[in-house]
Amino acid sequence: MTSTATSLLYTTMMHRGGLSTISYRRPTDASWPPPPEHESSEDARIRVELEREARRVNDEINRAIDRERIERKRKKPDVKIMLLGQAESGKSTTLKNFQLNFAPNVFRAEAEAWRLVIHLNLVRSVNYIVDLLTVPARPQPPESGKKSTSRPGSANGNPPTLSTELRRLKLSLGPLKNIEAVLSRRLTAEPYATSSAPCILADSVNFGTPTASVPCYPLFSELGVRVRSNSDWKRNRGQQEFDTKRQQRELEDAHNIIAACGSDINALWRNRDVQSLLKRNGVSSQDQSGFFLPEALRVTAKDYIPSNEDVLRARLSTIGVEEHRLRMEHGQETGQEWIMYDCGGARSQRVAWAQFFDDINAIIFLAPASGFNETLSEDPSVNRLDDTMQLWRSVCSNRLLGSVEIMLFLNKMDVLREKLRHGTRFSQYVPTFNDENGKKNDIDSVSRYLFTTFLTMHKLCAPEPSRKVYLHRTCVIDQRATSKVLNHVREVLVLGHLSESSLI
Ligand SMILES: Nc1nc2c(ncn2[C@@H]2O[C@H](COP(=O)(O)OP(=O)(O)OP(=O)(O)O)[C@@H](O)[C@H]2O)c(=O)[nH]1
Ligand SMILES: [Mg+2]
């Protein structure tokens, strides 16, 4: 292309969002631009040649722009979903379900990597119990009308007196302290601080208006593995050739020691004194994250490969915002890429969320229904349900999120069911819920109440109150039930996406 032709054609050139948009004056027909008066036949020949060249360049540019647009469209992820909710609400577990459902091959390929996390979950539980057997308890705050007691072991603040068997187990499981550090370092590649003996003083908590002081269900959050979770650690597992020989040996030794400790871990968990000690600390297996003690023999076996359910139950808290690309492996959307943002939900992590808000199609908000009588690990003065409601309010009222699809997962329904079944009164913590003297202290009434509360808040503070909110009761460690929910999510998002791109 000649420089004359170039200057003739281009008037402006701008770049918008990385895509070049070029405007120019078209030499469309013989009348424009009009040929100069008294043009010699030689000048006319040059002009026509220049115009022909300009048209050729113009067509070439148009074709390049079209190619780029098609390419960008092909590469562009079809759906971007953000998972929001407080820490331990089930965001990462929901992400695992997405992988399991829509990219099962990738999920299975990563299952082995989760063995390390599961072993770390298990070892931390063991070390927690060993600590309970060792450290004198801090006194528990007095409940209303009750005498103050000590936890965990003895009422006098001294270490509990141990049976011979427990002394033996404590000794034989001692090396697991070091194993915890090895596994944790292996996952995070960060300096590691060992867990200290937990003693959470759960004061009475309220949701909404303050009520009379009630005993709070104690948290056992120290069992959670507080390590950085990012896609790298999974890749690392499959790339052990990059480890030094020493690191590989260290990890092999750790697995051998865990395998050798299997039957003692099982004996510790089944020990009657330990069971009552845990009970006194409000620890029950069904509501604890990453709790693998009851399966100690199975998960410590040398040839253990985590099942899907194990992976869903493994606990690894998220730090920051992780981007996961999910390539659909089956169905109509095969080959399409979905982007999922999995966020750390602890209070200190939430500032990072907003920068992703203007570029997403949907939010899945995880609200753990079981949190009504629990407090935040990061701030034991805050009730978990109260915190979830505040968070929901700020998500609903955010203008940047005004046009995104919102799905609300009322999660941990299994834990809620168990709590209610064991007689915990929801109304004791949520005074605005009328349980008609305990007659309505059931899962249907409570979840209906919660849905109504969430929807009312959305109506009150959403920029577009008529926006539809999709509601689901979930237990995201239940793979089959969650699969149905996710298929519904997929339908909504794919149809929503199609209508947005005006294909339907
Ligand atoms: N019983 C039960 N456990 C669940 C459920 N959903 C999640 N969990 C468990 O709760 C723990 C925490 O879940 P995560 O998905 O890691 O929570 P998160 O929201 O990603 O937490 P952060 O990363 O800290 O923000 C995991 O061990 C899960 O297996 C549920 O519906 N029922
Ligand atoms: Mg997470």
Quick synopsis:
By secondary structure, this protein is of the alpha/beta class. It is 45% helix and 10% strand. α1 (3-9) packs across α2 and α3 (91-102) packs across α16.
Structural commentary:
The chain has 504 residues and is α/β, with parallel strands linked by helices. It folds into 3 domains: 3-73; 79-103 and 328-500, 3-Layer(aba) Sandwich (Rossmann fold), CATH 3.40.50; 110-311, no CATH class. Helices cover 45% and strands 10% of the residues. It is built from 16 helices and 8 strands. The protein has helices at 3-9, 41-75, 91-102, 104-134, 164-172, 176-188, 231-238, 245-270, 272-280, 296-299, 308-313, 384-397, 413-421, 426-429, 443-461, 479-500; strands at 10-16, 19-24, 79-84, 321-327, 337-343, 362-368, 405-411, 469-473. The strands form 2 sheets. The protein has a 6-stranded mixed sheet, sandwiched between helices. Strands 1-2 form a two-stranded antiparallel sheet. α1 crosses α2, α3 runs antiparallel to α4 and α4 (104-134) packs across α7. It is globular. The chain starts with a helix and ends with a helix. Residues 1-29, 141-155, 191-222, 237-241 and 499-504 have low confidence and may be disordered. The structure holds guanosine-5'-triphosphate and magnesium ion. Residues 91-92, 317-318, 342 line the site of magnesium ion (MG). Residues 150-163 have a biased composition (Polar residues). InterPro entries: Gprotein_alpha_su (IPR001019), GproteinA_insert (IPR011025), P-loop_NTPase (IPR027417). Residues 25-44, 137-163 are annotated as: Disordered. GTP binds at residues 312-318, 411-414. Mg(2+) binds at residue 318.
